[in-house]
Amino acid sequence: MAKMKTKKIVTKRFKITKTGKVMHRVQGARHIRRKKSKSRQRRQDRPAQILTTKYARMIKQYMNA
Fold first, then answer.
1. SS3 content of the chain, % helix, strand, coil (to 5)
2. What is the pTM of this model?
3. Which residues of the chain register pLDDT less than 50?
């Protein structure tokens, strides 16, 4: 059986930490920021963790990690 290729879009959107957590950018953080509170903007600037293990496992499989 052939090796599974890495899904390039997944490698651009997600990052796997040293401990194995899958991190992603928070949606809605790029524009129309004036009406969002400062605390909400700060929260959206930091990467967030994928909490669903089903999706995290799937993303790791696509990244061949």
1. 40, 10, 50
2. 0.80
3. none
Q: Are 64 and 40 in contact (CB under 8 A)?
A: no
Q: Which residues pair with 49 in a beta bridge?
A: 23
Sheet with 14-16, side-by-side order of all strands: 14-16, 22-24, 48-49
The domain made up of 8-63 is a member of CATH 4.10.410: yes
Domains of the chain: which residue ranges? 8-63
Q: Cβ-count burial of 14 within 10 angstroms (0-12 exposed, 13-18 middle, 19+ buried)? A: buried
